Here is the input.
Amino acid sequence: MKQLVIYIAGPYRAPSAKEISENVRRAEAVGQEILRRGHVALCPHSMTHDWDIGTGIADEVFLQTDLVLLGRCDAICMVEGWWRSIGAKAELERARELGLQVFMDVYHVPEVTRP
Here is the structure.
């Protein structure tokens, strides 16, 4: 398989800061495994973590930004618990509309084959 840019989609929001941090850590762990498999990982959880606190930037701005980033990728990889996230569901739907490869978990992502 050729190297892909893979967008990581999963829950971010949660009732507590601790649970948000756990969501971010799960997404980052998926990103690290994607890197180990030889692909490029795009993890919006890491990129915008805490950017929304006290900035006045609306959630919709982050969601729209994520969809733009998704459109630049070759594939999407879903993080455990994605089905509980409205945002992750929307990202999966958009990825399918764009015809991106869909990996329902990181263990379905094959390793890059080197010539």
About this structure: Helices lie at 17-36, 44-48, 59-70, 86-98. DSSP finds four helices and four strands in the chain. The mean pLDDT is 91.
